[in-house]
UniProtKB/TrEMBL annotation:
Transmembrane segments: none annotated. Residues 1-15, 459-480 have a biased composition (Basic and acidic residues). It comes from the Bacteria. The keyword Secreted does not apply. Residues 765-780 have a biased composition (Low complexity). Keywords: ATP-binding, Helicase, Hydrolase, Nucleotide-binding. Residues 566-687 form the Helicase XPB/Ssl2 N-terminal domain. It comes from Streptomyces axinellae. One of its GO terms (molecular function) is helicase activity. This is Helicase-associated domain-containing protein.
Amino acid sequence: MSSERKRGPDGRPDGRGPGAGPRTLAEDLRGRDDAALAALLRVRPDLLSPVPGDLTQLATRAGTRASVVRALERLDQFTLQTAEALAVVPTQGAVAREALGALLPGAEAASRLPHALAELRARALVWGDEEHPRLVRTARELLTSPSPTGLGPPLAEAAGSAKLSPARLQETLAAAGLPGSHDPVSALAALVALFDDPERMAALLAQAPEGAVAVLRKLEWGPPYGAADLNAPSPPVAWLLERALLVPAGPDASGGPGGTGSVVLPREVALHLRGGRAHREVEPVAPHVTAARAHDPATVDATAAGQAMTALSTVEELLGYWETEPPPVLRAGGLGVRDLKRTAAALDLPEPATVFWVELAYAAGLLASDGEADEVYAPTPAYDDWLRAAPAERWAALATAWMSATRVAGLVGERDAKGRSLSALGPGLDRGAAPEVRRRALALLATLETGSAPDRASVLERLRWERPLQGARESREPPPERAPTPTPAPAPAATSGPTSAPAPVPVPVPGGLRGRLARLALDEAEALGVTGRGALASYARPLLEDATREAAKALAPHLPRPVTEVLLQADLTAVAPGPLERELATSLSVLADVESKGGATVYRFTPASVRRALDTGRTAAELHAFLTAHSRTPVPQPLSYLIDDVARRHGQLRVGAASSYVRCDDDSLLAEILADRRSAPLRLRLLAPTVLASPAPPDQLLARLREMGHAPAAESADGDVLLARPDARRTPPRTPPDPVPEGPPQPDGSLLAAAVRAIRAGDRAATLPHKPKAPTAPAPEGGLPRTVMAETLATMQSATLTGSHLWIGYVNADGAASQRVIAPVKVEGGFVTAYDHTADEVRTYPLHRITGVAEVTES
């Protein structure tokens, strides 16, 4: 046996084709200028943690699985398709670029291919010279195990997994009409040459019995695995198996229980059936975002501004409610389900909408936990500053917090990877991709004509094309452990072909969380007033440039001016024709209950609401004066009578601690209470003509008497009336939660420049010539020279690409040393799978037991 592979200056195989080029990714990086290295570190910032010591370390880190997966997730659809095509390109020599063009046909694809390759090269996913691009080994493994294109393994790998004997291969050659060969390697090479020749392959399939080609078509676009009865296959399947157009696969390749096993369609056969295409549909051009409806820009801004005012009032109402009735923090963190329901009822909103406003207030720093022993959620001191700001500035603060927040309110109620329910304000809601998706969705809306609402499906399709893999892992259960073969599907009928069976996928599948984040972003933008009727508001465009002040200035003219008067009506209601000034709104919300919201807010006066105002220390005269000062119309007589009647009875009864007592100067009123059956649970007893005593606590006694229609007032030990003005709860100073970025933060220019200088310096130190070491003892005659692990691994990987034969020294588990001649097929996970010419079978060897490796030279 011989090998004519090109050797590098150090005598090692370089794995290159006829053209000159780097032998490894490290050499490729060494040939790039500082600007290219800085660009690589900018698009893959995870390579900087910590700063690599030299270019070899940088190349090693760039080839790790986690880093490569992260880099693949940031590719657009066509660039990803280019990488997938590179992963399955049948030849890796001088015609690699030509073969890549055949896998991605079309004029648009041809014009976009150089850009896609340049993008892959800039991200260190592709290396080598321009005409012989090579995919990083880890990326190749991720994109071929199995391939997202639906292609199965090459014939050589499939035959090795099936452990086809040399005799079986010779029978396959004869069945395919090929001459016999002297070894399995040449037999497989002859079959591959047949499958790669379109004319000869067409002639072979023309001889197939009826139904055979239909069987292949079932697996043509994947998954490439299927189930069939291998002990008694149908005539079409038997004909295909005899010619290796289908190859047994899996642990039941020889027939499992009932004769069922799995089969695989070799990659070369699938490519012929597809006409050489790697993908069913090549997508070289980004989908266009189309407009679904066109609105008047003024209408869009007015609608969005109305939503902005609603957003402000909702946040104020939420935090105003929680400042007097703060909900407790769960032991595991977050807001309890009951407290969420109670808050949603108070805001008159659905629970998902309530969660959004709660999370938005938290992201803006207006809400936090107080950190006390009985921890509760309450407004922060920043809430008071926010209230004092102008409405447009308050909205801009909310919108800015929403743009940068990584917490996703739409995930509340679902379960995390450990099966725990995700709660509002609790852990597990951060998704690092959320800010980028929101910003990108709004940027796509900004590309349309002013006032145009997009077709939402086109927005989602464009976002999918830009990052088809991003976030896909979040959307499904963790993948099963990788198995050497796929799980067979249920056995079909004896006359049918193989049934397609799913196989484990080690890389994210397209879609997933990114599409969901986009849908949530569009819904939340409408609720917040960033969009109106689906179109981007003009005043929201500065948010894309992080110009918060400009957005506030642009919004201000669209907001209605606060009003200082209401319309009092005879049905005990008050209508606010617009947003009220803060002091007026606060006072009126104590004196009346909000009945309905919208462009005009309707308040209703009730005995309970009037008593609530009297409990704060106001008198009836003050309430009359307040209404007269802020009403455009005269105060209706029924409202005046209501205030006077409640005020006359307010405080007539006095409740104190005895456990509790009731005191009243009107003994007939106390007699009425004692005779009322509703007072029975209070167990009242008459201590004096004007005093009743009860074992119930004062607060319960107050509540029961109010339910009975009375208006009691609490008093102190001195007999003074206790005012029931609720205290506004505030937390200690709190900072807004820090967004959780997706991966490492983006490095700035100075950090990149310093990192490149450090890597260059370390690389120069590592590659300087050193004084040669003392010669080691010569290897025994006929023995192999020992090689270090790095050289052994590089030589093995190079041989898998070129199909060369290697001479290795191997020490088995018993310590016995031997020499073998192998043809490596796959190097993965510390093992090399190869055809062992000595044993005449495919074997797997641990790399750490290989003492040395060398190319087979001519004998």
